[in-house]
Amino acid sequence: MAKNGVKHLAVILRSGHSDERSQGVVKEIEALGCQIDLLSADVAIASDVDKAFQATTVPIAGIVQGAMVLRDRMFSSMHVSDYHGALACKVQGTWNLHNVAEKLGLKLDFFTMLSSISGVVGQKGQANYTAGNAFLDAFASYRHGLG
Ligand SMILES: NC(=O)c1ccc[n+]([C@@H]2O[C@H](COP(=O)([O-])OP(=O)(O)OC[C@H]3O[C@@H](n4cnc5c(N)ncnc54)[C@H](OP(=O)(O)O)[C@@H]3O)[C@@H](O)[C@H]2O)c1
Predict the structure, then answer these.
(1) For residue 25, what pLDDT is reported?
(2) Does the Cβ of 93 fall within 6 Å of ligand 1?
(3) Which CATH number belongs to the domain containing residue 94 in this structure?
(4) Domain span including residue 85
(5) pLDDT per residue over 40-56, tens digit each?
(6) What is the Cα–Cα distance from 62 to 38, expressed in whole angstroms?
(7) Which residue's CA is minimally distant from atom 11 of ligand 1?
(8) Has residue 5 been placed in a domain?
(9) Is 44 in the pocket of ligand 1 (CB under 6 A)?
(10) What secondary structure letter does DSSP report for 62?
């Protein structure tokens, strides 16, 4: 996005951005003339999303939902915590991004969700992840339905 001229980005994740790899990416983005807000928040927690959305330097004009947690395991031995561990950021996280954006009256140019073909064809050992991606596909239809 920065390479294509975006001047402001805000990135949300839970674990912070101080690691070497993140710092390298931040430097590259800033060198392209893009200012980046580094926010720590859990998208599965609505109040976190609310706070993060109100902490950006400029108003949010578009959302890319790319949160992912993998807890791969055959479904027959998948613990319910593994199931929800992978699902929460995609299902609850997406609802929170959508609801907070609505609540704040944001005028969004795009609401892009990074789903996966696994949500359509399935994937051994990833029933939780594929369910999350199937949800994202359905949510895209839901938002289209809202216009
Ligand atoms: N990689 C692939 O081959 C591939 C293929 C098809 C689709 N995709 C999709 O593309 C997207 C990105 O994939 P990726 O490979 O770039 O994944 P990744 O490197 O694992 O990045 C996922 C990010 O999500 C963040 N995250 C997870 N749970 C979160 C939460 N509750 N709140 C806020 N941030 C959260 C993680 O940071 P923290 O853990 O610090 O929060 C991490 O930075 C995913 O939606 C995935 O389904 C990827």
Answers:
(1) 96
(2) yes
(3) 3.40.50.720
(4) 41-145
(5) 999 999 999 999 999 99
(6) 16
(7) 66
(8) no
(9) yes
(10) E
